[in-house]
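The record is passed on directly below:
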Amino acid sequence: MADNSSGKVTDELAALDFAAVSPEEFARIVKGLSAKQLTEVMHGELRTRVLGEVFGRMKQQFRPEAAGALTALIRWKITGDTEAVYETSIADGTCTVSEGRSEAEPRTTLIMADAEFLKLVSGNGNPVTMFMMRKLKVAGDVGLASGLTRYFDIPKA
């Protein structure tokens, strides 16, 4: 897919049933696209579907044994045409995800563009490198943010 025009890539992604795409297949799709292509496909209804599916799967990919007694609210701000905000709450060995900003104070907030978000959640981006290159901004508990990937089964492409 990487060498196709953006329109063709967008059409192919729009035709996908994201609920039927495995995390590993999603990781391969993301790996095959450039940052520019990832940004170009993240518009409108397709962006809403992709973000909804990724955050919808976090609960299933959560590793309670790794989180132990951790209690934390993580706010995700994904910038693009519009800012999308989701929150991941980890407490009592469970993970819940909600769309939108709550009144609660997050322990950490992760801010990144669409392409960086997709790379991060698909295992195609190194969070430390992204942070050092200012592609991922962290507000609050940087230590928690740096270890978040160990609390989830991240696919490998």
The radius of gyration is 15 Å. Residues 44-61 form the longest helix (18 residues). The mean pLDDT is 88. Strands lie at 72-79, 84-91, 94-99, 108-113, 136-140.
